[in-house]
Structure formats: structure tokens, C-alpha cells
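WARN no homologs supplied; continuing
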Amino acid sequence: MTRSIIQSAFDRLKAAFTEEFFKARKNWGNQSEVPVFVIGMPRSGATLVEQIISAHSNADGAGERSDIPAFIRNFNQASGGEDSFPDNIQNLTEVQIGEWAEDYLDKFENLDSAARIVDKLPFNYAHLWLIQLMFPKAKVIHCKRDARDIGLSCFQQNFVKPHPWSCDLGHIGQYYNAYADLTAHWQNTLSLSFIDVCYEDVVVNSEAESRRLIDFLGLDWEPSILDFHTSARSVKTASKWQVREPIYAGSIGRWKEFEDQLKPMIEALKLAE
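OK structure emitted
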């Protein structure tokens, strides 16, 4: 996967989904405030954020749901295939968006008891245009972390099949640059409520950052949130062991141990500087 392929795909998204596009569809979607979308690069702290939020008595975590990308994939299959995207989105109707929103909410097991439910599929960062249409009042939490630590962690995980870019250090840097560029576009274009949460800040000052998260979601603070690591919730992602322990700083700056080996990635990341 080369930079041109990644960047060209994201450039097409930026060209298609402009402020004018959303202004013409500003009254679409479901007005529910229940969905919370945690986005970012893999290994950026999404599971940690979900665990903190779901420790609240009036919130829950739904894990990495595949609904949003599935809606897009099925729509593309029915309207000319992936090569027609995103031009085919002009054919997407308000009725279809409403049906998808209802279908999405219907799958929440705790919809009646939770005021906020977290979908932490990090790659939803590429699909925020659809989240804007479906749930204009949704909250978006953008997980950020030192790009070099993210890259190292992705490279060390077995992401080969679904994410081939993670197998090459140079490609990791290129992919990160493209992700950062697209996410900045969304934050400048969409009306969704965004908050950036830095992994390092959560580790160093966990209570202040946890309070900031809970306040962003419009929930009252509960001291038990700081004991999120004792939760019996099932965690199925690569962070399942880390979130069972109190927050620790051991994973901050790990890239420095491998700086020489990571040079291809670090050089690629300079493209964004």
C-alpha cells in the first residue's frame, strides 16, 4: 500500500464531503444523543477511554461495532460497487439514513438504561461523514497518542490480514499522515461535537482527564470511575490485558528503545511536519 493510494482515497472523501454537502442535509438523521464514537488510530487508547466511560452507572460500552462500515459496504454493493464511492453518495436518501440510524440503535442491548453507549471502532474516523448524517448530536472522542508509539505498537501486533499497512514501517508512517489529515478535515467541516483525548495525558493525570471525558458526555461525576480496571466487562481487543490493570506509564515513549529500527517510520512521519 503506497502513500498515493491511501492519500488519494482520503482526498476523494474530503472533496465529496464538504460543508456545503452537509448544509444541504442538515435536518437528516436521528436526534439521539446516546451514541458516542471513539475514533483514532489503533493502539491510541480507545479501549482505555471506553473502559473509563463504561464505569459510569449511566453509560455502557458496545465494543468495536461493525455497523457503520457495513452500512457503507452494503450500499456500495447495491449502487455500483466500491469504485463508485463516494460519488454514489449523492443517491443516498434521507429515508435510508433514518432507517440505518434506527437499525443501529435497535442493536444496543442497554438502550433503555444507558444515557451514553460507546462504539469504539477506531477506523470509524474514516466514516464520520455518515455518523454526521445518522446522528448529528452524537459525541466523538478522538484518541491521540505519540505517533511513534502508535506505530511501534501497530507493528508489533498481528494486524497483517485486515491492515497490511501495519507490516511495513514506512507504510505505517504514511498511513498515519493520511489519517491525521482526514481527521483534521472532519473536525473543520462537521458539526459533530468533538473532543481530543491524549493517551499520555490520561496516564499522567487520570482523574482530571476522566472528569473531562465525563463532563463532555454531559454526565455527573462518580468517584468509582477511577476503579474502571476492576470492571468485569469483556474486552476482546489487543488492549484486553492493559485495561485490567491500574493506569501505568510504562508504554509512554517505548519507541525510544527501538529508535534506530523505526527510522523508516519516523522519516515517513516527517511528511506531516
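The CA atoms of residues 214 and 221 lie 7 Å apart.
OK
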